[in-house]
C-alpha cells in the first residue's frame, strides 16, 4: 500500500521527570507496567511506531532531555487512534498513578505534530517541537489534544514556511511570523 503524497501521521512526544531512579523500589510498579502498556500500544488500532532503545523493549534508558527525564515518542495513523490508546485503554490507569512516580510539570510535557506518512521523527525533532510549544504555545507546528490542529493546517504551515524561507536572507527566520 502506498501513501499519498499528502498522507500524514500524528507524532507524539511526552517527557516525565522521575521522582526516583528507575531501579528504586518506589518506581517498581511503573517499571512493571512498561511491558504490558507498550504491548497494548503496539497492538492498538492506528499504532505505527514507537521509539525503543537499541537492544531494549522500551526507551527508558535513553535520556536526551536529562538524566532523570524519560521520553516516550510514538507515531499514530490518526489523532483519534492516539486518543483511544491514551484514554480508553490500560494506559489511563498508568496516567492516574503518575504522581507516585513523576514530578508535576509546570511547562508543557507533551506535544503532538503531523509528519508525512512513513517519516519516523528523531528525538531531536521531537524535543524541538516540545520547546516550540513551550515557547510559543499551540500552533499547527506543535499542539496538544486540547489545542489540536489538522494535518491540512500543518501542511499549510509547511507550504508557508517554504515560501518564507525562499524570501528570507536568514533561513532560520523561516519560522518567524510574517511581517
Structure, explained:
Mean pLDDT is 87; it is low at 1-5 and 159-179. The chain is of the alpha+beta class and 179 residues long. The chain has helices at 28-43, 79-87, 91-96, 123-136, 151-167; strands spanning 8-17, 47-50, 69-76, 110-116. It contains 5 helices and 4 strands; from the N terminus they run βαββααβαα.
Number of helices: 5
N-to-C span:
42 Å
What class would the helix/strand composition place it in? alpha+beta
Total strands: the figure is 4
Helicity range: 25-40%
Could you report the average pLDDT, rounded to the nearest whole number? 87
Share in β-strands: 15-25%
Judging from the principal axes of the Cα atoms, what is the shape? globular
Strand line-up of the largest beta sheet: 2-3-1-4
Major beta sheet, specifics?
4 strands, antiparallel
What is the string of SSEs from the N terminus onward? EHEEHHEHH
Instruction: Kindly provide the radius of gyration, computed on alpha-carbon positions and rounded to a whole number of angstroms.
Output: 17 Å
Low-confidence stretches: 1-5, 159-179
Task: Provide key terms for this protein.
179 residues, four-stranded antiparallel β-sheet, 4 strands, 35% helix, disordered N terminus
Secondary-structure map:
Elements lengths: L7 E10 L10 H16 L3 E4 L18 E8 L2 H9 L3 H6 L13 E7 L6 H14 L14 H17 L12
Antiparallel strand pairs: 1-3, 1-4, 2-3
Concise synopsis of the structure shown:
With 179 residues, the chain is an alpha+beta fold.
Amino acid at each position: 500500500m502506498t501513501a499519498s503524497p499528502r498522507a500524514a501521521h500524528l507524532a507524539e512526544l511526552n517527557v516525565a521527570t522521575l521522582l526516583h531512579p528507575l531501579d528504586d523500589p518506589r518506581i517498581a510498579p511503573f517499571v512493571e507496567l512498561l511491558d504490558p502498556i507498550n504491548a497494548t500500544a503496539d497492538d492498538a488500532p492506528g499504532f505505527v511506531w514507537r521509539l525503543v532503545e537499541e537492544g531494549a523493549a522500551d526507551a527508558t534508558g535513553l535520556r536526551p532531555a536529562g538524566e532523570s527525564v524519560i521520553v516516550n515518542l510514538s507515531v499514530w495513523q490518526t489523532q483519534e487512534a492516539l486518543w483511544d490508546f491514551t484514554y480508553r485503554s490500560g494506559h489511563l490507569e498508568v496516567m492516574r498513578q503518575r504522581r507516585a512516580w513523576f514530578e508535576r510539570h509546570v511547562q508543557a510535557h507533551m506535544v503532538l505534530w503531523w509528519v508525512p506518512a512513513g517519516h519516523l521523527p528523531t528525538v531531536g525533532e521531537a524535543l524541538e517541537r516540545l520547546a516550540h510549544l513551550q515557547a510559543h504555545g499551540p500552533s499547527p507546528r506543535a499542539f496538544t489534544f486540547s489545542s489540536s490542529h489538522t494535518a491540512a493546517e500543518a501542511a499549510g504551515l509547511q507550504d508557508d514556511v517554504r515560501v518564507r524561507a525562499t524570501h528570507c536572507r536568514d533561513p532560520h527566520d523561516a519560522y518567524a511570523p510574517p511581517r
